[in-house]
Design goal:
The protein is of the alpha/beta class and 414 residues long. It contains ten helices and 16 strands. The relative contact order is 0.19.
Amino acid sequence: MKDTLREAIEALKPDLVRWRRHLHQYPELSFQEMDTVDYVTGVLRAEGIEFRAGVGRLGPDLPGTGAIALVRGSRNGTNGCIALRADLDALPILETGKEAYCSRHAGVMHACGHDAHTAMVLGAGLALHRLRDEWSGTVMLVFQPGEEKEPGGASLLIKEGVFNDPKPTGMIGQHVTPELPVGKLGFRSGPFMAAADELYITVKGRGGHAGSPHLLVDPVVIAAHLLTALQQVVSRRNKPGRPMVMSFGKVIANGATNIIPDEVRIEGTLRTFDEPWRADLHMLLPEMATGLARSLGGDAVFEIVKGSPAVVCDPDLTERVRAAAVEWVGEENVEDMELRMGAEDFAYYTHVMPGTFIRLGTGNPDKAGTTSGLHRPEFDIDEDALVIGAGMMAWGALCELRTGISGPGYRPPR
């Protein structure tokens, strides 16, 4: 079966490249992926794969921009179901690449590889569908909207009950990784990627003429003290050895050389793995900000938008999929990954069912942009990785249906 699947995936390489390039040219922001999901479901429809569109709705009066498809094996055997996840949305970034397939939507770009993720899950689904007489069970293809924006499309799909019938016994996700060379696959068991919360602080003072600071309450100075003080939570309040990052990437003090503004706006992110500590921080940080601002004569409003939890890869499922990866690409091409402070809403799935998250090597120093970091305007991938990733997703699903559903390591969804 492995050799047959490898041939089927290789035959799909022109399609994988074509799908990925089309999606790259026409990116759409989170929860706006109407054309994207239409393109995906068009491919599914042409192949005769059953699907349900319109999932992942932000509200009852808003359209869903995701889709769920079911690929069913026709051999007698297990009735189990394993899910493969792709994300559809792009980022608000102006692409600077020179390739013919660069974004045609100014200021919107697939700078996180979701175009590749979608193409690879499509490829895995089509290959499995064409080989359906050779395996049993169900593979669910999850085309999820809104990974890059809270509340996260994964949380919406779970709330909508799209995994209730059929009910997957696990989910496999995958993410392009430029720091890994093409051909490599990375795994980590247990906690893998951080919980992420958005931080919004409004520092309030009393502005006026910069030449008369004694008559004012300067929110810029308060904001400067606040930024320094909050970082001491990381270095002095956090337990040594407990991973944590707090970064502030946006500070707006809309004054002038001779104008002190009334307020300063600060925005940042909080990354953690420890849920009790995360909850403590949600109380501690606003208390600190308010107390410090008031001590300097101003005030502060601190808003925390709670994001996805940490990605926790199920040990048993990860061990089985890692073993499948060794069969697919060889032991020398399978690596163990370190904790990553980046966040992923795939995390929601890992808290309701066993899940594992594969890092797919896409870097190649000989191809422009492919070693660039994610969320960069010059980001690109080596498209040779598409065949590897699509094949890994398909092979991982087959191996899980064959061994994980009834094997000794199986645990029902939590």
